[in-house]
Design a protein that fits this description.
Length: 186
């Protein structure tokens, strides 16, 4: 069975309180809607910084969350001089210390992770594709730099757009682009 690819560049999720600290207001302005229902890229951006280096203009993905999190690739991590763990979103256990800089304030938190590869699904998708008892799958990529990726987590939510999320390092390694299709191996 096929699933569409969504490539996830470095980005930030914020709590409402941290948004107030960084921007001086408690709302995010929608730049564009994302494929996942209710999620959007905001007009607001932040810089992230470590003692070694900085990355400017990271998009904030809304809406607000119960946690502040910075998602980077391994390449970003090398650039920043940090060694963040690979985690599911919201699991900040062992996350790397990072400074998030907004136009009116900054925050220093242990919140930088490399996001697990995952496929967004809801109950209907799980049922339709015979995935109800699965938590992790593998995918097969066909092409010039094809291969198999293992340990792809199924991320269930109430409503989901059926999509594989890979960071830029994974996508680049296999020459994948947004909306390419790959095969789920059962």
């Amino acid at each position: 069975m096929k699933v569409s690819v969504g490539i996830s560049n470095h980005h930030v999720h914020l709590t409402r309180d941290d948004c107030i600290t960084l921007f001086g207001h408690d709302a995010l302005n929608v730049r564009n809607m994302l494929n996942q229902p209710g999620q959007f890229a905001s007009l607001e951006t932040v810089d992230i910084e470590t003692p070694k280096n900085k990355i400017k203009n990271l998009v904030i993905v809304g809406p607000f969350r119960d946690y502040t999190q910075v998602e980077v690739s391994k390449t970003d991590a090398w650039h920043l001089g940090i060694n963040p763990p690979v985690r599911d979103s919201g699991d900040l256990n062992g996350a790397s210390l990072i400074t998030i800089i907004g136009p009116v304030g900054k925050i220093e938190k242990e919140c930088a992770i490399i996001a697990n590869r995952h496929i967004h699904v809801d109950k209907n998708i799980l049922r339709e594709h015979n995935l109800l008892n699965k938590k992790v799958v593998s995918i097969k990529i066909i092409g010039e730099k094809g291969g198999i990726l293992e340990n792809i987590h199924l991320k269930e939510s109430e409503k989901a757009y059926f999509e594989l999320h890979l960071d830029t390092d994974d996508a680049n390694a296999f020459l994948l682009e947004n909306q390419d299709e790959v095969d789920i191996l059962l």
